[in-house]
Amino acid sequence: MSELVEKSKKQMLALAILSGIVLIALTAVAAIGYPEMMSKGLTVYMMAVPIFFTVLAFVLGYLDIEDDLTEGEIRYMKFRSYCFGGAMFVMSVIAVLVLVWYSMN
Question: What domain range is 29 assigned to?
């Protein structure tokens, strides 16, 4: 396995794990801090969808990177994963903030 492929796969896997942990922790802290959210289990459950898609973006990036790809193709795969995963991460954080704001009012 080439060094670039190995490094790229490690980055994708690390981002998948890290983003999942951060988003789950953020959702848990918001739910614990605002018990009204826990009484509405659907709002907490709805956070599972963006968390799933965020982790999925990086896992698919991990699975798509293979030995026979050129450097340009690997760069494109990483760019695609970063764009989609990053967008889902930002949307998840915004969703948690909206849920917290909604439960405060």
Answer: 3-104
Please count the structural domains in the chain.
1
Please give the Cα distance from 51 to 71 (Å, whole number).
29
pTM for the full model? Answer: 0.73
Q: State how far the Cα of 87 lies from the Cα of 72, in Å rounded to an integer.
A: 22
In sequence order, which ranges of 34-69 are alpha helices (DSSP H)?
35-39, 41-46, 48-64
C-alpha dihedral sign at 60, 63, 64, 69: positive
- pLDDT per residue over 33-90, tens digit each? 666 666 666 566 667 788 888 888 888 888 888 888 888 988 898 899 889 988 988 9
